[in-house]
Sequence to fold (234 residues):
Amino acid sequence: MADIAALRAANEKRWANARLTRSFTSIGRQLVSLRAKAKYQAVSARTGVPWAFIAVTHERECSQDWTGSLAQGDPWNRVSVHVPAGRGPFKSWEDAAVDALVNCSPYAARNKDWSIGGTLTMLERYNGLGYAARGRPSPYIWSGTDQYRSGKYVRDGVYDPNVIDSQPGCAGLLMAMMALDPTITFTGTTIAPAVRVTPRLAEKPAAPSLVNPAKGSIGACIPHLFNAVFRRKA
Fold:
């Protein structure tokens, strides 16, 4: 069982010392593009999870494929078969992403620590704590930086110390995104939704008119007079 507090401290220290060993700029540009950012912020508004966390998870789980679920990369318009299995189908990518963050382990929407150590640790929990249990830096986080050399779970429960993960790690992705978008920061320990949902204002009642007379006015009485006259004739 991994010590989460120790892992958070270790990830914070690794972040402070980390240097990129390959370029993440191209992927970073895609993740911070206006179209992508708007989609991530929409999910952030519904969950409170930082949009940058959502972006890097989307990249790691399904290479930013909008037909894939944030939970495990399965098509969101079908019932998922990979862990977490049995999710969906959903009406949209956004609905599937909200479900992944709110209803699926490690329940990122419940997290209150969005410092860099807390963010990286939540990302690592998203993938699994097998590397932390071995005392090794997770390639899910550190691949593409000098904090990672080799070692990868090639399938469930099978660890190969000689395999090198070629996918971009979350830490490198965040570094690239921060260089391109200075609004991304990890200075606080809590976060509010990135986009606040403004409550819809109550609609003003229509101005009085012949077809919509004010209550108690002469115009409001006329229909009653007509009804009374025609009922008597009938």
Summary: The radius of gyration is 26 Å. The longest strand covers residues 152-155. The first helix runs from residue 4 to 17. Residues 190-206, 228-234 have pLDDT under 50 and may be disordered.
